[in-house]
Amino acid sequence: MDMNKIAGYRIMLGMTQDQMAKKFNISKQAYWKKEKRQTQFSDKEKMKFKEILKPLFPNITIDDIFFN
């Protein structure tokens, strides 16, 4: 099974879906849907995700995370 990239980054951060949901100020269910690509991350959330990843990946881009 090919792992979802968003889930992969979350796991690299050592965070649960619940912890990520709290960072985004949304429910765990809402985060789960975004991770499963049932709903889209907003542009603001994409920026937030990039900021969360910055300590691990200083040069990461939104494209790297969500599109490439």
Automatic annotation (TrEMBL):
As one GO molecular function, the record gives: DNA binding
Q: Name the SUPFAM superfamilies for this protein.
A: lambda repressor-like DNA-binding domains
All copies of the HTH cro/C1-type domain together span 6-33
CDD domains (UniProt xref): HTH_XRE
What is this protein's name?
A: Transcriptional regulator
Q: Which organism is it from?
A: Vagococcus hydrophili
